[in-house]
Here is the input.
Amino acid sequence: MPPRSKASVDLETLLAEGLVSRGSDPKFILHRIPFGIPDLDELVNGGIPRKCVTILNGEYSCGKSFLIQLFMKSVQEQGLSVAYVDTERSYDPDWWRAVGLNINEVYVAQPVTGEDGVNTAMKLAQSGFDVVAIDSIAGLVPGEMTEEGAEKNFVAAQARLVTRLMQKALTTQHNAAIVCTNQLRSHLGPGPIDTMPGGWAQLFFSHVLLRIYRESWMEEKGKKIGFYMKVICRKSKVGTPYKECTLPFKFRGEIDILAMLAARAIDGGYIEQVGPWYSVFGGKRVQGLGAVITMLREDEELRKKLEAALGEVKGEEAVA
Here is the structure.
């Protein structure tokens, strides 16, 4: 046999030492945790990826924290564990319980400094939690800010801290989905019209970046009961970017899944609309979309048949 080249010997050494692996190695399989909302799961290519950093940003009161809570609820329903790093002191057990979370199985940290927040989040990820949420990056306050006078400029200090968070999230060995929220603020001077506190590192190192918008209001009898939340995937290293969806968010703490199902069915032609009148599969006509949603809520067989037609349930689960 001809002698092996030095290059092949070096490769075998790298493989043996675990420094290089074949692309087909199972360790590279990207596992995702679904939201449980079809439109949102399609947006993020099946779910939030593990071992990755996902950032949800947007203006105030657009639904960022609520989406985190909704995701954690879905995680619990799948029998997985969740931890919440509350940098803004906004954790409200009554509200979380109303959203549907088992708060006895939610582990909450309220760090004093940003450094404590970063270290705690990484320790939680290493300890085996399936999801570690940081709400928010803007609330990661460097420790030196609490020790110096208010007149000192700490913009660079926070950017360094957030860069450190991104670096530790990428280099620490864990199997968690790291999910963060951040705010949008006005940018003074030339540049983008809005920016995220904490610098550019989060844009460079995050795997998925979701932009949240608050759009039109949902009203009932002249009273605001919620709003339509638009979610755009602005960046994805692990899927298709620039997709978007709209979620009907109600203030009582829920996404109206049936309203979304009806919208998809109208687009698919399974619900016929003529002016204010609607008919599901050519059946009884009802007036108003609200009546359609009520019909789907009360008729489980009709709902499952519609889901099957849209390809959202397995065939054996559908009603013929």
